[in-house]
Amino acid sequence: MTLDNILEEIKKANSIVLLTHKSPDGDAIGSSLAFYIALKQFGKTADLIIEEMPRVYKFLPCANEARKIEEAKPQYDLAIALDCATEQRIEGQEEIFENAKVTISIDHHESNKMFADYNFVNPAAPACAQILIGIFEYIGIEITTDIGACILTGIITDTGGFKYSTISPETFEFTAHILSKGVDVSDIYKKVLQIKTRSHFKLSQIATARLEFLEDEKITFTYITKEDERKVEAEPGDHEGIVEIARDIEGVEVAILLRETDEGFKASLRSNGKVNVSDVCMIFGGGGHPRAAGCTLSYSLEESKQKIIAQVKANL
Ligand code: 5GP
Ligand code: MN
């Protein structure tokens, strides 16, 4: 069984690295920190690589122990990728992953490519962090309040605050359990989901002012440029959640947001169920979940816009 292999590899490894995707969201950060703290409890020190720690997650336990890519060792015995569907998602850190003697992927994306030596993937889980609960129980790690806070962060952010259809009884059983242990669930909810930075607010004003309604108002389109982000002094993570504003408008089936990056335009798609946006994004080499997915388009803004809209239309 994969879990036995994972346990065995952790026991054997003298050096472990934890990796997650670029522009890490709450699930990426929460899962990585939870695993990092769990390994400490297990008597293992790991290197946790997070290139940019978004401001909102800096309050989490051990958040200040994350390292930059440059600080990584040339080779690890074991590399564990969390919340990544493909090796390409570990953007910029593929070499660290490939150089490791043994690799593990723990993830909840249906589109996961089973790219590691051992793959523990559960597409039914609403967050990668929720998968960790079962793994920790299996390998005998106690879910402390610190680990609980990190897992909860992943669950809250990836379920939109317990509201997506992906939630399961375990989501609430776990939340009830850590609430009874003294974790301030309300406070974490507020910090990771409710409170927005001023830059986020200004960026959402720009994006909503530009919002276009297409195909009988079933598709919305907007974008954010580097210049916009510079103007509002955006920090990593400040764009999170903006695409959801449009998805929540009555009658909208798919909301599209393009965000300018060094690689082109990063598309974020959200669906209300009719269109599988993971399928749409896979056409462009991306992926995700049926109702939340992304990909990178290496064209001009106008070309990227036309290409992604055409594919959404074809799936409507
Ligand atoms: P977001 O729009 O918040 O960046 O991402 C939504 C979902 O799609 C997340 O589950 C994320 O992991 C996935 N996703 C975003 N971009 C990509 C991508 O380029 N490739 C793949 N495979 N998944 C992506
Ligand atoms: Mn996730």
Description:
The chain is 40% helix and 18% strand. By secondary structure, it is of the alpha/beta class. It has two domains: 2-194, inorganic pyrophosphatase (n-terminal core) (Alpha-Beta Complex); 198-315, Diaminopimelate Epimerase, Chain A, domain 1. The strands form two sheets. The chain has a six-stranded mixed beta sheet, sandwiched between helices. A hairpin with a 4-residue loop joins strand 6 and strand 7. Helix 4 packs antiparallel against helix 5 (145-158). The radius of gyration is 19 Å and the shape is globular. The mean pLDDT is 96. Bound molecules: guanosine-5'-monophosphate and manganese (II) ion. Guanosine-5'-monophosphate binds at residues 25, 85-86, 89, 111, 268, 286-289, 292-296. Manganese (II) ion binds at residues 27, 83, 108, 127-128, 158.
Alpha-carbon distance between the two ends = 40 Å
Order of the strands making up the biggest sheet: 6-7-8-9-11-10
How many individual helices? 12
**Bound compounds:** guanosine-5'-monophosphate, manganese (II) ion
From the helix content, strand content and strand pairing, which structural class follows? Answer: alpha/beta
Which sequence of SSEs, written as H and E, runs from N to C?
Answer: HEHEEHEEHHHHHEEHHEEHEEH
The Rg value, from CA coordinates, equals: 19 Å
* Total tally of structural domains: 2
Q: Strand percentage, roughly?
A: 15-25%
Spans with pLDDT under 50 lasting ≥5 residues? none
